[in-house]
Amino acid sequence: MGYSGRITILIVEDEIITARDIESKLQKIGYDVCEIAASGEEAIKFAEEYSPDLILMDIQLEGQMDGIEATDKISRKYDIPIVYLTAQTDLITLHRAKITEPQGYIVKPFTQRDLLITIGMALYKHKMEMKLKVLMKMLRIFLEDMSIEKKLQKSLHLILSIPRLFLQTKGAIYLYDEVSNELVCKASIGDSACNTVPIGTCLCGKSAETRKIIFSSEINKDHTRQQDSLPHGHYCVPIVVQDKLLGLINVYVREGHQRDEADENILNAFADVIANGIKK
Predict the structure, then answer these.
(1) Is 142-278 assigned to CATH 3.40.630.10?
(2) Which CATH class is domain 8-127?
(3) What residue segments make up the domains of the chain, in order of their start?
(4) pTM of the model as a whole
(5) How far is CA 56 from CA 1, 200, 259, in A?
(6) What is the helix (H) or strand (E) element at residue 116, kind and residue range?
(7) How far is the C-alpha of 81 from the C-alpha of 127, rounded, in Å?
(8) Roughly what angle, to the nearest 10 degrees, separates helices 91-99 and 67-77?
(9) What pLDDT digit, counting tens, does each position of 136-162 carry?
């Protein structure tokens, strides 16, 4: 995803007029086009180079590799959702395409609205699939024989591994210390965490105090710590069991990121797994 936080898309289409028309439609919707590939080989190269949020892949491509074969090779190496562009409707082609498990199909000719709906659904579906994979891995982590710190560090790596979810690979997991009445950092990535946060202080402390998710799209007046860092925002998610505070998950987002209910549902699911793994 580009620095702006906008969704980036790779177009794979060997007819340049068609490709430019798709690019124009995507830009009007609000997406960024990172590149246009005219062959399967270029698609693989650009997928590695740009790591786009989604690939629009024409099934019929000139050259030795069609879109289905390119999709298969990309899917084996990268976790990028792919939507097929196709005018092909024969059963053999559709069967080959289905085996590669794309996130959707758009049948030519299509409209700007078709792109908007299909891409939106594809990105949401991919995010939910990643959520389930991460949840299963987290559940297994808390069954392993290791320290709670190691479990939380592994869990945080998994949470921040979900593509296109939080936009920055920075975050922390805190546990609540009843004696000092503060959050104590037990896992962090990106050298971004405060060692301790008093309850009621800054975004994390206020989230812990209210037992509610706090979102900020920027460093604002409530963000009283680390204000000298690069521009960013946060999701702060309390880890709670029956209204008893156990800790908090803090993840970074790029400045200007829009609050997303789907993101919050995913984070709450992660918090529930951690809560059940550490509750006494």
Answers:
(1) no
(2) alpha beta
(3) 8-127, 142-278
(4) 0.75
(5) 15, 46, 26
(6) helix 112-141
(7) 9
(8) 10
(9) 999 999 999 999 999 999 999 999 887
